[in-house]
Amino acid sequence: MASVRFTVTPTKAEDLPGGSDLSPDISLRSGSRVRFESDSANRSDPLSEVSGGVTTTSAGGGADSPDHSSIDQGEGNSKTSSVYINSNHQVDDDDFYDKNLALFEEEMDTRPKVSSLLSRLVNYTNLTQGAKEHEEAESIGEKKKPSKSPQMGTLMGVYLPCLQNIFGVILFLRLTWVVGTAGVLQAFCIVLMCCCCTMLTAISMSAIATNGVVPAGGSYFMISRSLGPEFGGAVGLCFYLGTTFAGAMYILGAVEILLMYIAPRAAIFEGEGAAMLNNMRIYGSIFLLFMALLVFVGVKYVNKLASVFLACVIISILSIYVGALVSAFSVPDFPVCMLGNRTINAHDVVDNHCSKTVMVEKTTHLWKLFCHNAQLNTTCDEYFTSNNFSEIKGIPGLTSGAISENLWSTYLHKGDVLEKRSLHTSQVAHPASDRYPYVFADITTSFTVLVGIFFPSVTGIMAGSNRSGDLKDAQRSIPIGTILAILTTSLVYLSNVVLFGACIEGVVLRDKFGDSVKGNLVVGTLAWPSPWVIVIGSFFSTCGAGLQSLTGAPRLLQAIAKDNIIPFLRVFGHGKANGEPTWALLLTALIAELGVLIASLDMVAPILTMFFLMCYLFVNLACALQTLLRTPNWRPRFSYYHWSLSFLGMTFCLALMFISSWYYAIVAMVIAGMIYKYIEYQGAEKEWGDGIRGLSLSAARYALLRLEEGPPHTKNWRPQLLVLLKLDEDAHVKSPRLLTFASQLKAGKGLTIVGTVVPGNYLQSYGEALAAEQTLKHLMDKERVKGFCQCIVAQKPRDGISHMIQSSGLGGMKPNTVVMGWPHAWRQSEDPQSWKTFINTVRVTTAAHLALLVPKNISLFPSNSEPCTEGYIDVWWIVHDGGMLMLLPFLLRQHKVWRKCSMRIFTVAQMEDNSIQMKKDLLTFTYQLRIDAEVEVVEMHDSDISAYTYERTLMMEQRCQMLRQMRLSKSDRDREVGVESLQRGFVWCEKCPQVCVGLIRSLKLYAILEWPSQSPDLNPIEIYRAASSGGGSSEHHRRIQMTWTKEKTTQYRATHSGCSTPEGFRDMLSIRPDHSNVRRMHTAVKLNEVIVNRSHDARIVLLNMPGPPRNTEGDENYMEFLEVLTEGLERVLLVRGGGSEVITIYS
Predict the structure, then answer these.
(1) Which of 511, 532, 944, 1032 is the 20 to 30 A CA-CA neighbour of 540?
(2) Which residues contact 511 (CB under 8 A, 6 or more apart)?
(3) Which segments of 630-763 does DSSP mark as H helices, in order?
């Protein structure tokens, strides 16, 4: 929907030129104002102020248009005077900054000078993305420092932050296990797939990030501004949840390193399995509380520690490479005890005795674990008895050829023993029991499981774009830094896959927690000079990554909340006085606690994998859409992108989602879909120039061009409504129920255009048109009508309506049905334009071949909150109109208001018709139309024209002629020659007031009652007005039904025959009704009698609307015929077809 923005720049009295003496810095009171002044030494004149452009204030007939009538001498240079129109005071030439733009001075408030525009753009400062602005506000009472221009380059601003965010817990805790389980080849494929996914996403992200400034929110901002608030909010929340669960994963990784490798004795619960999970929950909650408090106290401490954490990561990775090179010359001593081909838990190998006996007859600790006792003649495990212990090197070295054995995958089920396939075993025994000291697999593994666990190790590519406000040249640094970081990390991951497979024994690689190497971190066994380098480095880097997640996630949520697209998140947009997102941090900590309570890194990793993949998917989609739609504003500086790469990245993301965990993928999509629909129906409407809107425009253009190929088939016909509403002087809709009725017809799901005509000139009435449009939009929202508004400004309402009917719609989406109200109290109206406009609209719709719906007594129609519990919808099918009368009740009954009403169809049979056969045919027709309705044929016998019909026609024609002579406006009476005849009428009415009043009242369809003899001197206009308003006492002026007879007419004429009337009024009394009018009145009266008799209890009556007369002189008679036709009916819908078939019996 199009939106109108009003910008109001308040100007104080002291700000006006000449109003008061201004201080030199008066224009600095508002940060949004731009101050323009001359370079001249003399600055005595008031300063000009603009807001969002140059605003010229015209006060007192051009108070700010200077008249340069003098020559100022300064520094030896003469300044010629310049004369301006409507100038009444003098200003120096140097202070009149737009002296060369006088031609445009009246537009300066909406169209600023180029110099002022460029000045504001250059001085634009974007909020920093990390926490720089919060750091400066940490110290309360400290004087606020002026903001410095961003100075960070590619290395410090993008490359290193991306490295720190990408390298994480998975590299140190799970990559060796992935290589050992999947094999070098499949592990290489897993890493390559994930890295390709992030590389393609980085290319798309670089294109979006270099297409303009990316403020706070990073990826959320890019997606929301590219795909709209619905997608942006849904994916933004998914990205927030992913970042939050990433914090939980890093905390669990840190706790695992602490309890497994640094301080195993710190475990509260002894044992494995459930006890270990409880330890993880307790310590994880403690870690989370400590980190959340640290973030709450001050983000500056987190940012200062970031460099330390990054150093830990780099040192740890370097130690791996050095250790791999050293292993080629000096093999580290990490023996692995094997029983046959089964791996023994090194924690149970006491004193390094990997054997059954010591000194021939002394049994070892392992003997006691496999046998009933320590005696040599005791019963032992069958596999233990038939196999011997042996030791193999856990780190055989780079040149050992171990990679040949580690090439292939070894996927295990939960509880399987880690086995070395190349070692000889005497027999295939029964499955090993968990009471023996073997190393077991803790989870069932597969290729898809490993993908889901590994993918979080390649996330973090958004770190550079999130810091765009800190960068000196963001459009250059973001693509280079991000892509270089991904290339670096991909090279590290892929090389580590090969190094791990070449240097480490396969059973050790598959040993997730290092039980076979005495509880050492597996990757630490390869590190040089000591495993503690990796252990300590990975612990601190993991803690740092957790802190970064707990710092970034609340700010992301705050950015979403401040956009105000999700109502229930508004509270999280607030925080401390310095802008710190306190409430968002609290929610983030609570959600992260849920991840901590899962207590398994392998279970948490796939969850955040889904959320990150969904975010990356939509980044690729945004880039592809913008590229394919060729939006004029799509001009990224990064040119190495293509829509096919974006689609390939999107395909990668979608495939990885379902490969890693199809049920998690479905859950993530359902969550995103629910958020999308919530924002769509409840969130605030935003117009961000997004790609989805561009896609909608392209789809709409394509569909409209397709619709132009030909008229719609009858089966596709649906009412495309043009609802004509009238506004009063206060811009309020006179008949809002008309729009309610239109909403009840919308079961056809067609187009709805709500239009109104604003009288006046467009240049002067533009503001009124905007106000009218806003009124219509508000009413449409209230009635829940989906459609468009159209306001036309015209001098005459009838011309405006004609223009609207001609111009509404576009292509094949043009209205085919006009809905307008009945002119209420048209008889009593002194201005005939209302009903004349009504008849003119009927003629225009007929000429345009549009259907017409006229609800009569619209105020009595039910609202959407007043459903009809029972009753009938009666259709009086008198002439064929293309099936409109059949289709409309069906559409009405689709709405809850009319759903419980039954449908009855009445048709009229003449004397020559076979009513029985007509009923059979009508039943067959309704059956073939699949419409459930009762059918009845009403026989109308020929009858003589009654006296009532004759007299009513007479009164109608007399009324028309009387009003033509008397209903003139004040200005017309002063101009027209007919004033003399009107004065003669005054004299006549003074002589015979009873006749005049009686005639006027009869023409107003009041009963002829005796006028009080006390008022014989009233002039005809006063008499007319009194009769119109029912003047006089209620005792003498009761409105009753006329029952004329010949005797009463003769008596009336005899009573008043003595009056000498002027010629015009004598002709009026002696008039004889036109025969065609008598016949039409007869038809209207007879039909009305039948309709009222049969449908007096109907909820609504639908009947054919007769066409207007070809001769415009009979327009008022036409209105009278319609009044007679619908008299006595509560709710009537007059229907006039558009000349085309709208319903068919064929499928």
Answers:
(1) 511
(2) 177, 180, 343, 418, 439, 517, 522
(3) 643-660, 662-682, 691-707, 737-744
